[in-house]
Amino acid sequence: MAKSLRSQCPRKSQAGWHAPKHRRDAIETLMANSVGRVPHLVPIRYGRMMESPFAFYRGSAAIMAADLAHTPSTGMHLQVCGDCHLLNFGGYATPERRLVFDINDFDETSVGPWEWDLKRLAASLFIAAQSNGFSKDDGREAAWHATSAYRDRMAEYSEMPLLDAWYDFLDLKKIIEQIVDPDLKKLAKTRLKKATEYTAHTKEFVKLAVAEGSPPRIRDELPLIYHDDSGDPAKRRKELNRGFAHYRDTLQPQRRVLLDRFRLVDVAMKVVGVGSVGTYCGILLLVSGSGDPLFLQFKEARESVIEPYVGASVYKHHGERVVVGQRMMQSASDIFIGWTHGIARQFYVRQLRDAKITPDISVMKPLNLRNYAELCGRALARAHARTGDAVVLAAYLGKSDAFADAITSFAVDYADQNERDHDALIRAVRQGRVEAQVIE
User: Could you tell me which residues belong to the region Disordered (predicted)?
Assistant: First the structure.
């Protein structure tokens, strides 16, 4: 089967990027992707994307999905992340309170070409290297090491018993102990300690809630955190209760028992990320009988950016699509992850943070970025091996550097495309074609 895949899609054919003759205007694609978002938040999205080519890349998953549809593919589909850039990896605590490194964002997950995740990851690494002022060779090294680590780890999965491969995970504490750079190691240990010293919800309560009065209330921090007081309060509360009840029903029975020990006391909108800005996202504050806080985050789930090119998801509810994809790809998932719906919108729900550790790319040196790239490649291989045939994938990839060289070539070329698109956004803002708001 792998030989057949190589015949129809040689590994070297995955190299390079040339924009198709009738490529859709990038700004038109962005504007189309903004339709249905909260209107007054869309300018914040563009403002964040203007910051740098790397910030633009984080918010341009829809543009890249359209571009990837014009690239060679083996036709072998499996559960993919759909937005696999380097900041969508990180550390978090599992239900067993083990700290792992894994993919942690699945808004665009669906069944699609496995190569698309690797191409988006490799390009993000090259662009991040440029953002840090590294040389092109350093950027190439990062992209190449991510792809070669993916290849090597997939080869190992192809020889493992299936259950061993399924249960595999990347231990975050071991990863930090193996960091060679003393400054980065110290920083990682400090962040790990902060993430685990107190419960995430207690820390978030101190930052986000006004404790005076009963019940406590989420603190407004306009324009990024605010209460949506539009419409009739009674209808709004009724809709909230209905949506929360539906969310509860999507949890496993033992999780419902735990959730039922908390009561919902407040809800507020919260602007998050870059690509998600403008979608209907927010936080829920729950309090137990003894006063313990629990923060849940709800995020609007829309059609995945890759669905127009690979076909609709089998899940009609996009919140369910996200939840199922996350459970399939992660080594362990949040105990409170579920889905629900509101008026004309679909959502998924999860804990706001649970010992979440996001990498700080800006402080990395070239060697740090290369090592981080290898981690991402290994984590992606583990995720793909869950729903794909590791034997076929490993055989297609082979032992040579042909595939890694090809994906690196694509990453370098696509970084140039991304820079051109970023420039186009700046021009569009200056011309008044789109409105941008920069939040200091």
Answer: 1-20
Coil, helix or strand at residue 94: coil
Any residues with CB less than 8 A from the CB of 48 and at least 6 apart, and which? Answer: 55, 59, 274, 277, 438, 439
- Other CB atoms within a 10 A radius of the CB of residue 258 amount to 14
Q: How far is CA 304 from the centre of its chain?
A: 12
Query: Which of 144, 149, 150 lies closest to 129 in space, CA to CA?
Result: 144
Q: How far is C-alpha 317 from the chain's CA centre? A: 19
Residue 138 amino acid letter: D
What's the number of CA atoms in the CB half-sphere (13 Å) around residue 405?
9
Residue 176's SS3 state is helix
Q: Give the Cα separation of 242 and 107 in Å (integer).
A: 23
- Output b/e per residue, 1-32; b: 16+ Cβ within 10 A: ebeebbeebebeebbebeeeeeeeebbebbee
Span between the terminal Cα atoms of the chain, in Å = 53
Pairing of strands 77-80, 217-218: unpaired
Q: CB of 3 within 8 A of CB of 393?
A: no
Compute the distance between CA of residue 378 and CA of residue 154 in angstroms, rounded to an integer: 8
Domain ranges of the chain: 2-197+361-430, 200-351
Task: Give dist(CA 106, CA 88) in Å, integer.
Answer: 8
d(CA 326, CA 299): 14
Read out DSSP for 250-272?
Answer: TS-HHHHHHHTTEEEEEEEEE--
Q: How far is CA 232 from the centre of its chain?
A: 34
pLDDT tens for the chain, 440 residues long, are 999 999 999 999 999 999 999 999 999 999 999 999 999 999 999 999 999 999 999 999 999 999 999 999 999 999 999 999 999 999 988 888 888 999 999 999 999 999 999 999 999 999 999 999 999 999 999 999 999 999 999 999 999 999 999 999 999 989 988 888 888 888 888 877 777 765 566 767 777 777 676 788 999 998 899 998 887 888 888 999 999 999 999 999 999 999 999 999 999 999 988 888 989 999 999 999 988 899 999 999 999 999 999 999 999 999 999 999 999 999 999 999 999 998 789 999 999 876 678 888 888 999 999 999 999 999 999 999 999 999 999 999 999 999 999 999 999 999 999 999 999 999 999 999 999 999 87
Q: Checking DSSP bridges between strand 281-288 and strand 262-270, what pairing results, if any?
A: antiparallel
